[in-house]
Input
Amino acid sequence: MAKDMTGAGRVTIFPFLHDWETGSRCVLAYTTTDGGLTAVLGVIPVEGNVHEPGDLFAMAGRHGFIGEWKGSHEQRSGCWLACTGSGSRTVRKAATIDVSETKWSVDMARSVDLDSPYYGHSRVVAGRFTLADTELAEQARGLITGALAGV
Output
């Protein structure tokens, strides 16, 4: 069941090519709660982007797994999302926005408790992400608005 989650803290925002065949892009945000035990990922909606991935767990599953993570499909999708979020901070793209403190909320579409810690996280939640700071939200949406012109 979806519910809202709110918080404040460090948020990393980055453009993401989520479908290589179509060149579909979105803007993802990553943060943590519970002292870092919970990874929170969300799509920041961009007006006009008809190619947003929707369910991030389903998107993760479409990327395939070679065996680097064990467990059910949902567990493996959660691990992929934790990896993507954590990696967004450790290996930043040039356009990454990293804010040390901001308020946020996520309409949590899905969550999974991982069978063991991955990338420092024991739980992953994912959904649609909203930034309380409207200027920051506009800057985040701007990460792909130019890319949408060619879609």
Remarks:
- The chain has a mean pLDDT of 87.
- The first strand starts at residue 3 and ends at 19.
